[in-house]
Amino acid sequence: MIPLRVDIFRARAAIINGLLTLVNVLAFFYELTLSARTGRLLVYKFGLTPSHEQLLFARHGINLPQAVLPLFTSMFLHGGWMHLLGNMLFLWVFGGAVEEALGHFQYLIFYLVCGVGSALVHTVFNLGSKVPTIGASGAISGVMGAFIVLFPRAKVTTLIPALLLFFTVKIPAYLMLGYWFLLQFFSGVASLGMTDQGGVAWWAHVGGFILGALLVVEARGKIRRAAYT
């Protein structure tokens, strides 16, 4: 299922959401200018590697800045065109409404907190792993978690591929995002114990989604009733 748009009226431009998208795209274009070797070094330096985070507590480990920086920089790097485009599509579809609900500055802080929180959850479930993780999906999962809490009845226009045909349907947000979350959770359970293997950071998605939902529970009561088109 590929989300295309949501039926929520927005009175303001999603400035921060647009800037976050732009930063991710520019960072990816920079990655494309690097040689294969330099690109790998970039990922290992600025990507999140769970075993490196653990070294913060080792006698001859890494220092605090070296441990903290990847928690932020990893969410602005991507491993390929599909990785980037998929993340940016979900951010664009769901982020604008959440930004308007929270406010520009609060949304920026919310996004970064979800990104860092999801990275920490990924680290806990992958202790000892030497595989670096990159991508904005943890932070975007937080945006999706916030969306399902704030706008559960919103309709999501979704593209459904069926063999060689494509059609669109409108699905309530709580159904689409709920299904998405369950898929991430059960995939994460299936991946337990599979450290040092590449692939999808399922637990970053799960952690980000739950964190995003929890962070806006209180804010939900303060937000005016959403206008659905």
Explain how this protein is built:
With 229 residues, this protein is mainly α. It has one domain: Rhomboid-like fold, CATH 1.20.1540.10. It is 61% helix and 9% strand. It has a 3-stranded antiparallel sheet. It starts with a strand and ends in a 9-residue tail after the last helix.
Summarize the entry for a quick read.
The chain has helices at residues 15-32, 36-46, 50-54, 64-73, 81-102, 104-125, 137-150, 173-191, 202-220; strands at residues 2-6, 155-162, 165-172. The protein is mainly alpha-helical and 229 residues long.
Notable features of this structure?
single chain, mainly alpha, Rhomboid-like fold, three-stranded antiparallel sheet, globular, disordered C terminus
For this entry, what is the oligomeric state of its chains?
single chain
Q: What best-fitting shape do the alpha-carbon axes yield?
A: globular
Q: Terminal Cα separation, in Å?
A: 22 Å
State the CATH architecture. Answer: Up-down Bundle
Based on helices, strands and strand pairing, what is the structural class?
Answer: mainly alpha
**CATH class categorisation:** Mainly Alpha
Count of alpha and pi helical runs: 9
CATH homologous superfamily label: Rhomboid-like
**Radius of gyration from CA coordinates:** 18 Å
Counting structural domains, the number is 1
Number of strands: 3
Query: CATH fold name, please?
Result: Rhomboid-like fold
Order of helices and strands: EHHHHHHHEEHH
The fraction of residues assigned to DSSP E strands is 5-15%
Q: Compute the average pLDDT.
A: 89
